[in-house]
Write a structure and sequence with these properties.
9 helices; 258 residues; alpha/beta; seven-stranded parallel beta sheet; Rossmann fold; globular; binds NADP nicotinamide-adenine-dinucleotide phosphate
């Protein structure tokens, strides 16, 4: 293996990806396995998770599905214990699972919706990262990648719960990086722009003109395919980014700059 290839090699690494049953999470799980990693597929849909695990196993890597609803801390506790019991260590966490909503005025947000968005997009990922960091510390460190949205940096009207719950995660990304750097843990975030997954299709389906509008927010004037998230995640997960922590990498076709 060449020295530059070795930088991105994830052989012997154990990666945990949430929401790995479909969309960006599925692409990330398969991409990490292609880079050499064993993968824990955390998801609610066991059948879809098992299909992803089958794809990973066919590449000769180990994969295990662990059911987890990110709204429930008890599920998150069980997930981390199950992952460590099976694989003995955790090297990489990708906090990918998340929810978005159709455009909605702030005045229509109710208590339940507010709680749900912060539970899934902020509270659960924070709890998971906190438990994983303790395990990573026992084996000398690791890398955590939080999947935000470009709306966490450039929020807009009518997507308030989505943008604000991800913006809170942006803040937590920095707190995690500062608290866990002494433990050998790097923490970075990716701020995706529009990717062609169910999330974007649902938004486009319910809102006339949304797809055209979102394409126009990019410099590249197109929506990304899920596999285009893999390179940035493998970079942040691997030794290729050994001196990078506390950062946010926009992967949004140039829609924003940091
Ligand atoms: N696609 C985009 O344009 C875009 C842009 C910016 C940021 N992102 C972010 O990228 C991440 C992945 O999004 P995606 O586009 O792949 O969306 P997606 O196709 O809708 O997939 C979302 C994933 O999150 C999981 N999830 C939702 N609620 C959950 C919960 N309570 N517990 C556990 N898992 C839960 C879903 O599981 P189920 O299958 O069980 O529902 C699914 O696996 C999200 O954090 C999203 O905010 C996406």
């Amino acid at each position: 293996m060449t020295a530059s290839k070795a930088l991105f090699d994830l052989s012997q690494k154990v990666c945990l990806v949430t929401g790995a049953n479909r969309g960006l999470g599925r692409a990330i799980a398969i991409g990490l396995a292609e880079a050499g990693a064993d993968v824990i597929i955390a998801c609610r849909d066991k059948a879809a998770g098992a299909a992803v695990a089958g794809e990973i196993a066919s590449q000769g890597r180990r994969a295990q599905v662990v059911p987890c609803d990110m709204e429930r801390w008890s599920d998150i506790d069980t997930l981390v214990k199950a992952a460590c019991d099976s694989f003995g260590r955790l090297d990489v966490l990708v906090n990918n699972a998340g929810i978005a909503h159709d455009p909605l005025p702030l005045t229509d947000v109710d208590e339940g919706m507010f709680d749900r968005f912060f539970h899934v997009n902020t509270r659960g990922p924070m709890r998971l990262a906190s438990l994983v960091a303790q395990r990573m510390a026992q084996s000398g460190g690791g890398s955590i990648v939080n999947i935000l949205t470009f709306g966490a940096i450039k929020p807009g009207g009518y997507l308030s719960m989505y943008c604000s719950s991800k913006a809170a995660m942006r803040s937590l990304n920095r707190s995690m990086a500062e608290e866990w750097a002494p433990l050998g843990i790097r923490v970075n975030a990716i701020a995706p722009g529009p990717f062609m997954t169910d999330m974007l299709k649902d938004l486009a389906g319910s809102t006339e003109g949304f797809m055209d509008f979102t394409v126009q927010t990019t410099l590249l004037k197109r929506v990304a395919e899920p596999h285009e998230i893999v390179g940035p995640v493998v970079f942040l997960a691997s030794a290729a980014s050994s001196y990078v922590t506390g950062q946010i990498l926009p992967v949004c076709g140039g829609g924003i700059s940091m």
